[in-house]
Amino acid sequence: MVEVTDAAPLGTAPAPAPPASTTLGELRERGAAFRPVKAELRDNLLARLAAGQRSLPGIVGFEDTVVPEVERALIAGHDLVLLGERGQGKTRLIRTLVGLLDEWTPVLVGSELNEHPLHPISVWAHRQIAEHGDDTPVGWLHRSERFGEKLATPDTSVGDLIGDVDPIKVAEGRTLGDPETVHYGLVPRTNRGIFSVNELPDLAERIQVALLNVLEERDIQIRGYRVRLPLDLFLVASANPEDYTNRGRIITPLKDRFGAEVRTHYPLELADELRLLRQEAHTTWLGGEGFDAPIVPEHLVEIIARFTRLVRESTHVDQRSGVSARFGIAGLETAAASAVRRAAVAGESRPVARVVDLPSIVPASRGKVEFADSGSDPDDDRELEVLEHLLRQATAQTFRARCGGLDLTGLQEHFTSGDTVESGELVPAAALLGQLGTVPNLAQLLGRLGVPEGEESAEQAAAAVEFALEGLWLTRRLAKDSDGTRTVYGA
Q: Phi-psi category of 450—alpha, beta or left, where left has phi over 0 and alpha has psi -120 to 50?
């Protein structure tokens, strides 16, 4: 039995207290040195690898494929573009790179560009150091604040990314030739950090041109200004291969300046799909006041994982679009929510998801799937039928994998005299088990489904028995009648 737990997004954990504020002189006395961000990433990555630690914790299913390619790119100091269908973890991977930065880094207090005290790049910074010398105040910047991100949209401007003239600064009396009249965009404000452009092909080609100097010469150009800022950046972009060739494109000079291109993919193995669901599904907060967090049994997690893979492989689904990992994650959360709803209505203290909660996944997740033959007038009923069929297929596969060879004849014999068992999304566990009395081989069934010995409960037993009944129906050993809210099993 698996209780799905929340995985805290990387970089959101509270940062420890920063080092004490200091001065430029004290920093020099300590022997501090400026280290470019790419060298920082490389050194910290190599230290993790030498220590036998995971370089990108939390990344599932890429250990032998994508991660080694990313590691080689980081060691080589290459800017990176990730290509893959939606929901393959590109953004998650990019944000995880922040963990390879130093936890704290010194910055000039008040700098818009996160300038290192020993490597000033702006007119403002040089003036500060000239005025204050060794007494120039130095603060500390946490790695979580050294990440910039922009979702590429058609209305993105050069000013958003690079910068533009600030009319307010001009109105204050500065001349147009003064570089301090510039309002810096997102890229220079992420100096000494990682900057990500998501869905890069959606960025207009004339805007992509503005990134050419950033990638090669490591500086920026703003209108007619002679502004040369030797930016210290690691630039990473993501793109969908379909957009890469059709809806939009990355201009050839920009593609050429990315040092590495890495293709992502969906989980290759069922085990990876299961790990991903357990890590990413947020269910522990669903219990709320008066209810424990819901339990999603192992066999239900497996059904949802198999269901996701079957939908992804179906000929009815548009393969160019793909089926996001969010499809399975949302399905698991929906099943858990259905269990919580039943517990609230039926008075159960510990919600446990059952097979009867699975049909709620289909209508909730339909919008995450693009069907190949939907056209301009999609057939909603047909699409629902396809998803329902694949869900039954996933349930049957899981039943055969987990209960193959298990003697369920005792459970099946309960129906030989004409008795029936009624279940439903609001039928409590006690009511379901009360219709069956003693269930033969229940301990073996619970063991097959991963319930630890000594931790059995009525809710877990009901989930196991209902799965067995569904499996017997799918293997044509029981009959079943269902009207959507009420399910009756019989001989």
A: left
pLDDT the model gives residue 447: 87
d(CA 246, CA 226): 37
The C-alpha angle 487, 489, 491, rounded to 5 degrees, equals: 155
- What gap in Å lies between CA 236 and CA 238, rounded to an integer? 7
Q: 296 and 241 in contact (C-beta within 8 Å)?
A: no
How would you list the strands of the sheet with 479-482, edge to edge?
421-424, 486-490, 479-482
Give the helix ranges, DSSP H, for 24-116.
24-29, 37-50, 66-76, 90-96
Domains and CATH numbers, the chain: 22-263 (3.40.50.300), 270-490 (no CATH)
CA distance 286 to 12: 21
Token couple for 244: 């890469």
User: DSSP string spanning 38-59?
Assistant: HHHHHHHHHHHHHTT--SSTT-
Cβ proximity of 55 and 100 under 8 Å = yes
Specify the DSSP element, H or E, that contains 7: none
68-77, 315-324, 338-347, 438-447: which is most confident: 68-77
Q: What is the average pLDDT across 63-85?
A: 95
Between residues 181 and 145, which one has the greater pLDDT?
Answer: 145
What's the one-letter identity of residue 364? A
Closest CA to 264 of 242, 244, 241: 241
Q: Encoding tokens for residue 38? A: 């790419």
Element (H, E) at 182: strand 182-184
Per-residue pLDDT of 231-240, as tens digits, reads 999 999 999 8
Kindly give the interhelix angle for 298-313 and 380-403, rounded to the nearest 10 degrees. 130
β-strand partners of 238 = 82
Q: Classify 394 in phi/psi space as left (phi over 0), alpha (psi -120 to 50) or beta.
A: alpha
Measure Cα distances from 97 to 91, 114, 116, 211, 258 in Å.
10, 19, 21, 21, 17
Which two structure tokens, joined as six digits, stand for 355? 């097979």
User: pLDDT digit string (tens) for 155-174?
Assistant: 888 888 888 877 777 667 66
Distance CA 47, CA 259 (A): 23
Residue with more model confidence, 410 or 309: 309
Torsion of the alpha carbons at 150, 182, 190 and 210, rounded to the nearest 10: 50
Q: How many residues does the chain have?
A: 491
